[in-house]
Amino acid sequence: MSIQISNVTQIDEGGTNPKTELFEQPLWELTFDTGEKRIIGKPKMEEYLSKAYEKTVHHFKRRISTLTSGAKITQWSVVFTDYDDILLATIELCDKLYKGHQRKDEEKYKKLDEELTSKRGLIAEAVVKAQEHSQHESYHRVTTTTPDEREQIDTHRDKVKRDVVLSTEENLEDFRDLIKKDAAPHPDAKGYEDMK
Q1: What residue segments make up the domains of the chain, in order of their start?
Q2: 58 in helix, strand or coil?
Q3: How far apart are CA 138 and CA 131, in angstroms?
Q4: 55: which of 15, 88, 134, 179 is 20 to 30 A away, CA to CA?
Q5: Are 76 and 88 in contact (CB under 8 A)?
Q6: pLDDT tens for residues 83-112?
Q7: Phi, psi angle pair for 62, to nearest 5°
Q8: pTM to 2 decimals?
């Protein structure tokens, strides 16, 4: 409902609330600037008005007044739980419903953002602790290899590397011979016979 509301119409005969799928009487039809229409029930209307005024709505009611000229105007009486009341024109009611819906969304997004921030905070904290722990251990790590053992290990490592290179070259020659053998035609092969 981030689109402005252009009109509110009360449906006195009621109907099925699209959200709850229960019969409610009355219902309200909101008309948006885009021409789209949406039906909402009393709890949503009260919720949006409460969010707009930042105090709880006890009840609200449509009032139709007849002027001395014979013209009729629609006014909306909103009564809060502290029994404070206000009288709104339809345009003012539309504006308050819009603002109430915006506040509701802001609160919802703020709550989601706080949850994400707290989760991110926990992850960041764990990463920092892990980094500190690994740095602490690397500074205080005791080596158990003596310099003579280190030299033996390095010599063995170099020997293994040389052996791998030599065996790879020998294996490469064997592999090439195998490929040549597979690519050569079979000595008894006569080719494809013509099919008729």
Answers
A1: 5-107, 114-143, 144-182
A2: strand
A3: 11
A4: 15
A5: yes
A6: 888 998 888 888 888 888 888 877 777 777
A7: -85, 135
A8: 0.53
